[in-house]
């Protein structure tokens, strides 16, 4: 499924309780399949802020908004959130529709 116009992106900003960052990262890695195994999910990324202590960003891309919204209301999503909730000390969510996608020259370089 191609990225491009219409791709729906979810951006979560999560503040993790002090001292729980490593356990949060490990748990996120273990439970992430709940998201990526969804047929409409295109992938997700966990990033740690370089500027703010305990702040993480999660980006999740979906083929479209309606399929994400159905997942958002599902029992699977509730179970996923329940596993990550003990680590959270706050956060926010932003959603957006992709307008353009440009790949960089380093896209194919193994990391």
Automatic annotation (TrEMBL):
The keyword Oxidoreductase applies. The keyword Amino-acid biosynthesis does not apply. It holds the Pfam family ABM. Signal peptide: none annotated. Gene3D superfamilies: 3.30.70.100. Keywords: Monooxygenase, Oxidoreductase. SUPFAM superfamilies: Dimeric alpha+beta barrel (SSF54909). Residues 8-96 form the ABM domain. One of its GO terms (molecular function) is monooxygenase activity. This is Antibiotic biosynthesis monooxygenase. It comes from Streptomyces caatingaensis. The lineage of its organism: Bacteria, Bacillati, Actinomycetota, Actinomycetes, Kitasatosporales.
